[in-house]
TrEMBL record:
Gene Ontology CC entries for this record: mitochondrial inner membrane
Free-text cofactor note: Binds a copper A center.
Protein name as it appears in the record: Cytochrome c oxidase subunit 2
Listed InterPro entries: CcO_II, CcO_II-like_C, Copper_CuA, Cupredoxin, Cyt_c_oxidase_su2_TM_dom, Cyt_c_oxidase_su2_TM_sf
Species: Sarcoptes scabiei
């Protein structure tokens, strides 16, 4: 989580964010070298009164200052293309989560793990859904929610996002995630958390008066804990009394 006087990115929670941080440091080192060189040349020209005629209208100099930037751009493009490929790479997901944006809260539709569903009192439940609304009384301020999205650790998960009203943006900096939630269109992104813990994000697209009060709270847990939490959420949200509960496996499953 971001804190005061923090000069760098948040600690990465995914391989994609780690690659983004490394590319940022690599690009910054090249830019610092360019700034130092240009500053040295600028001061040298200002304080040096001698004039070199070979530097004026020189074909060799013009070739150098045209070719060198090309090589610098190539040095930046190659790792940049690698990171873009990693971010857009389509993986086979183990779980599909639906994330619905509203003014001004998020709704999550969370599947059960390992392709099964519950049969309770002759009714079949393939997933459970809930709303996540900001809580003022909990810390960190303006980031905590009454219910958090739970995802499993070291598991390929796919987020399917859309909006019911205006354009929103689902942003989770520590995982390198940011995608728009658009009305009438479904966007997707993939995540594979590399460590467990509690992570926070916010809507990154101005979506109305309460845009600043639309946080994202995400918790990464191990697979067994994820299985237990999703089952408990389902049972808590069933208003009727249940007497017969069965866990049934599926041969094929999609959300």
């Amino acid at each position: 989580m971001t804190s005061w006087m923090m000069m760098s990115f948040q600690d990465s929670c995914s391989f994609t964010m780690m690659e983004l941080s490394l590319f940022h440091d690599y690009m910054l080192s090249i830019l610092m070298g360019i700034v130092v060189m240009i500053t040295y040349i600028l001061f040298y020209i200002i304080f040096n009164k001698n004039f070199y005629k070979n530097l004026s209208e020189s074909t060799k100099i013009e070739i150098i200052w045209s070719v060198v930037p090309v090589f610098i751009l190539i040095m930046l493009v190659m790792p940049s293309m690698k990171v873009l490929y990693l971010m857009e790479d389509i993986k086979t997901p183990s779980l599909n989560f639906k994330i619905v944006a509203h003014q001004w809260y998020w709704s999550y539709i969370v599947p059960f793990f390992k392709s099964y569903f519950y049969k309770i009192n002759s009714k079949e439940y393939f997933f459970h859904e809930f709303d996540s609304i900001m809580e003022n009384e909990k810390m960190p301020r303006l980031l905590n929610c009454d219910k958090s999205l739970i995802i499993p650790y070291k598991t390929n998960s796919r987020f399917l996002l859309f909006s019911t009203d205006v354009i929103h943006s689902f942003s989770m900096p520590s995982m390198g995630l940011k995608v728009d939630a658009l009305p009438g269109r479904i966007n997707q992104l993939f995540v594979n958390p590399s460590r467990m813990g509690m992570f926070f994000g916010q809507c990154s697209e101005i979506c109305g008066a309460n845009h600043s009060f639309m946080p994202i709270s995400m918790k990464v847990v191990d697979m067994k804990t994820y299985d237990n939490i999703t089952k408990n959420f389902l049972l808590e949200n069933i208003s009727e009394n249940f007497t017969n509960i069965k866990k049934i496996m599926l041969l094929s499953y999609s959300l």
